[in-house]
Amino acid sequence: MTGPAHSSGNGVVAFIGLGRMGLPMSRCLLEAGWTVVGFDPSDTARQAFQDAGGTPAADAGGAVEGADYVILMLPNSRIVETVISEARDALKEGVTVIDMSSSEPLSTRKLAGSLKEEGVTLVDAPVSGGVIRAVNGTLTIMVGASAEDFDRVQPLLKAMGKPRRAGDVGAGHAAKAINNLMSATHLLISAEGVEAGKRFGLDPALLIDIINTSTGRSGSTETKYPKFILPESYDSGFALDLLLKDMRIAASLAKDLGTPTSLADASIAVWAQAAQDLPAGADHTEIARWVTHKVAE
Ligand code: NAD
Fold first, then answer.
1. What is the pLDDT of residue 207?
2. Which domain does 222 fall in, by range?
3. What average pLDDT does range 89-100 have in this prediction?
4. Position 24 in a domain
5. Residue 43 lies in a domain
6. In this structure, which residue's CA is closest to atom 37 in ligand 1?
7. How far is the CA of 19 from the centre of ligand 1 (A)?
8. Boundary of a domain, candidates 168, 199, 216
9. What residues are in contact with ligand 1 under a 6 Å CB criterion?
10. Atom of ligand 1 nearest to the CA of 236
């Protein structure tokens, strides 16, 4: 473990949460010439980060000390809030915290308000594209920030993908949750549709191929089926419980706003049942195998 790192030019970035997404994202920053100090409670994650050229810290406070930017890539809003409160005293004045986790938009707004009083800017910048695009540095990054803050964080975010400003703080997290509610529901209906096709005698690979030049296509049929479901690897790297968390964030936001959630509620109920039936930590693409087993029961 080391003390505060010094910038080689671009500035010092603290990266907290070196998991399936955080580790490859922090690698992209290192490759782009940023000095990155990282923290994750997992020894394996810290070791992999060090092997990639990063500087591991002993705790979140140690990571943020002297950093110009603090990136968070954590499971949820509660953990984001815990980490921020642990590291708060070590945050340098004028620092920008970028929450790239898929967090709750209203909690994000609240946290941004309380940090602002201490001279700390919070920007939300959740991502879409999964582990493959995190490795390639081609994530879609949905940013919630003022136009000025967006301009300031763009050079950093561009090392990990394509940043797009969704609106003011919280807007990125809202866009991300809505995206995942839609994505999960596409995947579920694809699984049910393909299962019906199989029962009829259609070849699933051929059916997906036909759908991919027809109007039923989606990210699920174009990417998830060919890469993870048809080969039966079920290894996208995105856990089912994290996806379910995002669906619930979007539905709860819609309820708060008084917009319809009938399909969202039905989709969430099925995903929640799958989460209960499947082992903890199951990949979200396992929903397709689960639907097959349900049909067979
Ligand atoms: P992950 O579980 O692989 O990684 C999360 C990391 O956070 C773990 O390494 C864990 O040790 C670390 N962590 C937990 N508590 C911590 C704490 N208190 N301090 C520091 N580190 C802590 O999850 P992931 O798949 O990398 O997802 C991270 C975020 O990105 C989630 O919000 C998820 O919804 C979102 N996301 C994931 C994907 C994907 O394909 N995996 C895609 C888009 C968005």
1. 98
2. 174-296
3. 96
4. yes
5. yes
6. 238
7. 5
8. 168
9. 16-22, 39-42, 45, 60, 73-75, 79, 82-83, 101-102, 127-128, 130-131, 237-238, 242
10. 40
Compute φ and ψ for 25, nearest 5 degrees: -65, -40
Terminal Cα-to-Cα distance of the chain (whole angstroms) = 53
55-56 vs 69-72, strand pairing mode: unpaired
The confidence score (pLDDT) of residue 11 equals 84
Q: What's the domain count of the chain? A: 2
Whole-structure pTM value? 0.95
245 Cα nearest atom in ligand 1: 34
Res 1 pLDDT > 50: no
18 CA closest ligand 1 atom index: 9
Average confidence (pLDDT) over 267-293 = 97
Q: Tell how far the Cα of 281 is from the centroid of ligand 1, in angstroms.
A: 12
Mean model confidence pLDDT for the chain:
95
Same domain, yes or no, for 115 and 144?
yes
Residue 7 domain-assigned (yes or no): no
Between the CA of 88 and the centroid of ligand 1 the distance, in Å, is 20
More confident residue, 296 or 52: 52
- Residues 181 and 151 occupy one common structural domain: no
Q: What is the CATH number of the domain that holds 255?
A: 1.10.1040.10
Q: Do residue 203 and residue 121 come from a single domain?
A: no
Does pLDDT of 145 surpass 70? yes
User: 261 lies in a domain?
Assistant: yes
